[in-house]
Design brief:
Elements lengths: L3 H12 L3 H8 L3 H8 L7 H11 L3 H4 L18 E6 L14 E7 L1 H4 L4 E5 L14 E6 L8 E6 L5 E8 L2 E5 L9 E4 H6 L2 E11 L3
Parallel strand pairs: 1-3
Antiparallel strand pairs: 1-2, 3-4, 4-9, 5-6, 5-9, 6-7, 7-8
Helix pairs in contact: 2-3
Amino acid sequence: MGTLGSRIKELRLERKITGDELGKILGISKSTISLYEHNKSTPDDAIKKRICSYFNVSFDWLMGLTPVRTTIPLKRTGKWVPVPVLEHVIAGIPLKTIAEILDYEEITPELAATGDFFALKIHDHSMEPRILNGDIVIVRRQDNVDNDDIAIVLVNGNEATAKRVKKQEDGITLIATNTSVYEPHFYSNKEIQSLPVKILGKVVELRRKL
């Protein structure tokens, strides 16, 4: 069945990516990838799980516990671009904080060419029924959005959430879809600067796990 290193190399070559590209996806150096593939170093369990998630293979197969390469068939085909799924965004976008990365989603090369992207797991009910608690949203990083866009917004350093943005001359209003529970909240231009209220990006896609 080969070694752990040979299986990692096999997966990488099948996906037609370089060691440097795989290192960036996993948040490690290309030299570390080389050490893995030559069995001179062993990835920790967190990295193993990310490898399984990215290449869509079972942990047992990766570890050589079974000769059967179990996969979950992907619905998407072609050369897609991986983006990290974050559990939380507290103060900024910690794309290099590997502990924050839950998984990876894939976007088209055409979409990827329009900016820098991350994905975020939703942890509240404010945008229901359109966006549910536990859904994944694909977000283009940008500090401004158009009226009525759904954005990921950070207020006063607290955890960022998705809200519809309504702009006014004297400030902005953040609007939930679930208005029976979450009332719209207005922030003046002064509060935008002092709290602060920061737009981190625009929600461009919704990924729902069935």
